[in-house]
Specification:
about 425 residues, mainly alpha, Serine Threonine Protein Phosphatase 5, Tetratricopeptide repeat, 26 helices
Length: about 425
């Protein structure tokens, strides 16, 4: 029997690169392409970026999870860049697979003419929006601001400051949640940088607000309300927000609607503000307006309109909107609605939204919105367990007796479990 994949990674973690490489080679010889990614990690440790890239590309071509992101990172290695490697195609493929890191670097390549790319501001903005929609990537918000500040993207200093406030908000949430402790020092570094950039641009922001710039008023509101410059000043923040809303600034309308609802104000006013923001493609506003439509709060109840709004927000990367659209589509039960609901849940599952992963696995088991696929179902249940939710493991074990060893291996692959599920099943069957 071949070694387990996780044994190779355990050795690599302990610094035994040669031992890890020997195990990965044995696993590769047994026909498991996931070993290519392990061999790429060994090549990185051995200071061979060219080999790491070749192995990552081979893994990506075999559809190994995480391989496109690995190839993008390897292509960016200075050793490969100096060797004339075509970096941009690797960035694009990884970004299309959901890597905000790759989308961010693709944007920089387009904006600054890096990696042999011609400058293309419109494409750079598209990639930056992709990066921030994937997971609110604070590094992408910072780059967005820098490119606006440097005049490489439209928006100028005011638009740049808006991006820096978004970066601060995203970083504060990540630091407070402590969900990524290994990234905490990096997040703190980025937070200091974002604060510094906001302070440098304060004079420009003051002047722009005095001249009536709606976005400048909104940025001033954020800075005074959230203490981004100094102690909070609620009265000054309110005046800036009112000025921005009067000018129809979409983000300001969304924030004002939240305040109206939180204070028990006029729901019809909140709905109108959210409509203005949703029409400007603010995904959070479309999500909130859908909730009002569903409840008939501040406007007529309209489940079909709520579904359309949730789908609109989902198209801009709003994960909770994906799951709500799925729930309502199931309830509506029209022709094709269940299939659309399954697609919404799969999209949310690809963003590692665990409840959606669990729901998508159950639909795969039961054949809801598509053909029954017990292998995909088990892979989904195991993937949930690897992310701290074991709710589906009883269901996975209920399906296990009906799967062949090859199907168990495939479910392990789908779960990106590095053979841990396969080893658990093998031990269970050996008893």
């Amino acid at each position: 029997m071949r070694p387990w994949l996780f044994s190779g990674y355990d050795r690599l973690h302990l610094g035994d690169v040669a031992g890890a490489r020997a195990l990965f080679l044995e696993i590769q010889a047994a026909g498991d392409a996931r070993a290519l990614l392990g061999l790429a990690r060994c090549a990185e440790r051995n200071g061979d970026p060219g080999q790491a890239l070749s192995l990552s590309v081979a893994a990506a071509e075999a559809s190994v999870p995480r391989a496109t992101a690995s190839a993008a990172a390897a292509a960016l290695d200075p050793g490969n860049a100096s060797a004339g490697v075509a970096v941009f195609p690797h960035l694009v493929r990884a970004a299309q697979d959901g890597s905000s890191f790759a989308a961010n670097h693709a944007a920089l390549a387009c904006a600054r003419g890096l990696h042999g790319q011609p400058t293309d501001a419109a494409l750079a903005e598209t990639w930056l929006r992709t990066a921030v929609e994937i997971d609110g990537d604070p590094a992408a918000w910072l780059n967005y601001g820098d490119l606006r500040e440097d005049g490489l993207l439209p928006g100028g200093p005011v638009g740049a400051a808006h991006c820096y406030t978004e970066a601060v908000s995203s970083l504060r949430q990540r630091i407070e949640s402590a969900a990524e402790p290994h990234l905490a020092p990096w997040h703190q570094h980025l937070l200091v940088s974002a604060f510094a950039k906001l302070h440098v641009g304060r004079g420009v922001m003051d002047a722009a607000a005095r001249s009536g710039d709606a976005l400048a008023h909104f940025v001033q509101y954020r800075c005074h309300a959230e203490a981004l410059w100094e102690a909070p000043d609620p009265d000054l923040a309110r005046r800036h927000l009112e000025a921005a809303v009067s000018a129809g600034q979409p983000d300001a309308c969304a924030h004002a609607a939240d305040q109206v609802l939180e204070s028990g104000g006029d729901p019809a006013r909140a709905a109108e503000l959210l409509r203005l923001a949703a029409e400007a493609d603010i995904p959070g506003a479309a999500f909130a307006l859908a909730g009002l439509c569903l409840r008939g709060f501040g406007l007529a109840a309209d489940a079909d309109r709520a579904i359309a709004l949730y789908q609109r927000a989902a198209a801009r990367g709003h994960v909770r909107a994906m799951t709500m659209a799925a729930e309502l589509l199931d309830q509506r039960g029209g022709e094709g609605d269940r299939a659309l609901a399954t697609l919404c849940l799969r999209k949310a599952a690809r963003r590692e939204h665990v409840p959606a992963m669990l729901a998508a696995a159950r639909r795969a088991r039961d054949g809801v919105g598509g053909d029954a696929d017990p292998v995909a179902a088990v892979g989904g249940f195991v993937a949930c367990q690897r992310r701290g939710c074991g709710d589906g493991m009883r269901e996975a074990w209920a399906l296990e007796p009906g799967l062949t060893e090859g199907e168990i291996a495939r479910s392990d692959w789908l779960a990106d479990a590095d053979d841990r599920w396969l080893a658990e099943v093998a031990a269970h069957r050996a008893r």
